[in-house]
Specification:
The structure holds two protein chains of two kinds. By secondary structure, chain A is mainly alpha-helical. In chain A, 80% of the residues lie in helices and 0% in strands. Chain A has a single domain, classed as MetI-like (MetI-like fold), CATH 1.10.3720. In chain A, α1 packs across α10, α2 packs across α6 and α6 crosses α8. The relative contact order of chain A is 0.15. The model of chain A has no long low-confidence stretch (mean pLDDT 90). In chain B, 78% of the residues lie in helices and 0% in strands. In chain B, α1 packs across α4 and α2 crosses α4. Chain B is flat, with a radius of gyration of 21 Å. The relative contact order of chain B is 0.14. Classes of the chains: A mainly alpha, B mainly alpha. The interface between A and B is large, with 41 and 37 residues.
Chain lengths: 220, 230
């Protein structure tokens, strides 16, 4: 059991890399689409809704396959600059995970934006605060505070989602566990050890979010 | 479009049966999940510390590890365990457990953890006065559960159960790694033999969207039906 630990830990590093980079990109995508969702223009609104509907309604595995196997089918993309990115499974995984978590994040932020009391915005308006400052100094901080618990769940869901990277040949924690299983024929040791590492990461994320909630969240 | 025609030349009929398989696995997994939830919800609500810890361990561990891990553990570990058990009885051949059963069981264990949380939340949100009132009226414990708590619990948990159903439906795509021919596996096969992955994975995405859309409509109807009188 000890002998398999180093290889699993090296996989865990890849898992964390995938998680951090896709959460970061996903947050940006989510923020953009949340702003598009609260836009009054029906076309922009529908577009953002369609995006989140597609990515929340289909399994992550389908999205991953579509990007990894599917995009390579398009002649035009293969000849373009993008081929450098989409021929690498690592980047494909990051693109798929970011788009997926972006859709969920946009829903979380949208509901947070919509539950902000109208009084705050009206108060800002009557004080003559510009729209831009109202957004950055009032709406955004409140929305982020309100969405912290839901966003913590989303991070943990995404951590579990990164395990799918192993099916497109990335040696993340799951991929290493599979390799150990194939090499040693000891499925229980390999997968249970990997499970413990996953649980440990989940535990740390959970506690960080709890701390942030305590520090910045609304006291209830 | 001819790629999707029914019969020997197209993949229409294969994909159709694969969709039925996805629905069948999802329903089986959801049912297995309910059984797990009905076992573990009382444990989580119990006043006994040990039982409580068992219930919490189940939901925390299952919701904290990747779905793929549970599937692999059951698929690889299950075969080994079955062969070990058989070797005790003197059978040394290779045993392969049906992919449908392992898949449904694995997804069922996962969806059970989510259902447990939903049921627990629903029971906790039932007014305490109802428990007290039924106690005062001398209603037996199991009648109290079946006639008073259960109907309310089910009504309160429908919206959240619909989320669990969506998660379960999407999780079944992971069973494809074990070789069960559902939507994902069938698209993988079709994409491999026609060398048109973009088309077939798009079809898979559309099929999943259709399933989630239709089940949402159905659940909304159920919700309206069971919310009558409220």
């Amino acid at each position: 059991m000890i002998s398999i630990f180093p290889s699993l830990l090296s996989g865990a590093v890849i898992t964390l890399q995938l998680l951090v980079s896709s959460m970061f990109l996903g947050l940006i995508i989510g923020l953009i689409f949340a702003i598009l969702r609260i836009n009054k223009n029906p076309i922009i609104n529908k577009f953002a809704y369609g995006y989140s509907y597609f990515f929340r309604g289909t399994p992550l595995l389908v999205q991953l396959y579509l990007i990894y196997y599917g995009l390579a089918n398009i002649e035009f993309l293969r000849n373009s600059f993008f081929w450098v990115i989409i021929k690498e499974p690592y980047w494909c995984a990051i693109i798929a995970f970011s788009l997926n978590t972006g859709a969920y994040t946009s829903e979380i932020l949208r509901s947070a934006f919509q539950t902000i009391k109208k009084g705050y915005i009206e108060a800002a308006q009557s004080l003559g605060v510009t729209k831009k400052i109202t957004f950055y100094r009032i709406q955004l901080p409140i929305a982020i505070k309100q969405s912290l618990p839901a966003y913590g769940n989303e991070i943990i869901l995404m951590l579990k989602g990164t395990s799918l990277a192993s099916v497109i040949t990335i040696m993340d924690l799951m991929g290493e566990a599979r390799k150990v299983n194939v090499l040693t024929f000891k499925p229980f040791e390999a997968f249970i050890t990997a499970g413990i590492i996953y649980l440990f990461i989940t535990f740390i994320i959970h506690n960080i979010i709890k701390y942030l909630e305590k520090k910045y969240g609304f006291q209830t | 479009m001819e790629l999707l025609s029914f019969g020997d030349t197209g993949w229409g009929d294969e994909l159709f049966f694969a969709t039925l398989m996805t629905i069948a696995v999802s329903i089986a997994a959801m049912a297995i999940g309910f059984i797990f939830a009905l076992i573990f919800t009382p444990l989580k609500l119990s006043k006994n510390k040990t039982l409580n810890v068992i219930g919490n361990c189940y939901t925390t561990i299952i919701r904290g590890v990747p779905e793929l891990l549970v599937i692999y553990l059951l698929f690889f570990g299950g075969t080994g365990a079955a062969m070990y058990a058989a070797s005790i009885f003197g059978y040394d051949g290779y045993i392969e457990i049906n992919a449908f059963i392992t898949g449904a069981l694995a997804i069922g264990i996962i969806s059970g953890a989510y259902s447990t949380e939903v049921f627990r939340g629903a029971i906790l949100s039932i007014d305490k006065g109802q428990f007290e009132a039924s106690k005062v009226l001398g209603i037996k414990k199991y009648i109290q559960f079946y006639k008073i708590i259960l109907p309310q619990m089910l009504r309160l948990s429908i919206p959240n159960l619909s989320n669990v159903w969506q998660i379960t439906l999407k999780d079944t795509s992971l069973i494809s790694v074990t070789g069960l021919v559902e939507i994902m596996r069938q698209s993988y096969i079709a994409a491999g033999s026609t060398r048109d992955p973009l088309f077939f994975y798009s079809v898979a995405a559309v099929l999943y969207l259709m399933l989630t859309f239709l089940s949402m409509k159905l659940i909304n109807k159920l919700e309206i039906k069971y919310s009558k009188g409220y």
